Sequence to fold (158 residues):
Amino acid sequence: MAREAREDPKVVALKAARCLNARPERVVDQGFLASPFFDARDLLQVKYEMIRRVQVDGLPVSHAAEAFGFSRPAYYQAAGALEAAGLVGLLPRRPGPKHASKLTEEVVEFVLQRLASGAAGRPRELIAEIEARFGIKAHARSVERAVMRARAPKSGQR
Fold:
């Protein structure tokens, strides 16, 4: 019975951080090809080095983008993100929605009023009323999270 080969721990870590370069074979920069210090699988390192080669070494943007496997617009996007937020700006953003799009302020205010009046003990008990009044289907847990966010103290307030 053959033992299953273990995946490289660095690859596992890069995947977990969403920083695994999907196309490391496109990185043809001589620094990455000549030195084991550089790892074309590390998307954050690749982007940073691409930007550094332009800003410090004076490589033209088109050459740097091609050598690191990116387009010119991708270079400018990465450079802007680095300038705005530092290295953290180069990290890929989380996929998916960033906020509850169905649960507008109006819907949340309705739920808060109904809860305050005693019409319902828990936000999930208002799902049918939300659908009838606003014409939207909301998941019970989404309504509960929206209520928690609305009740949470705003930053900067005590």
About this structure: The chain has a mean pLDDT of 90. The chain is about 50% helix and 0% strand.
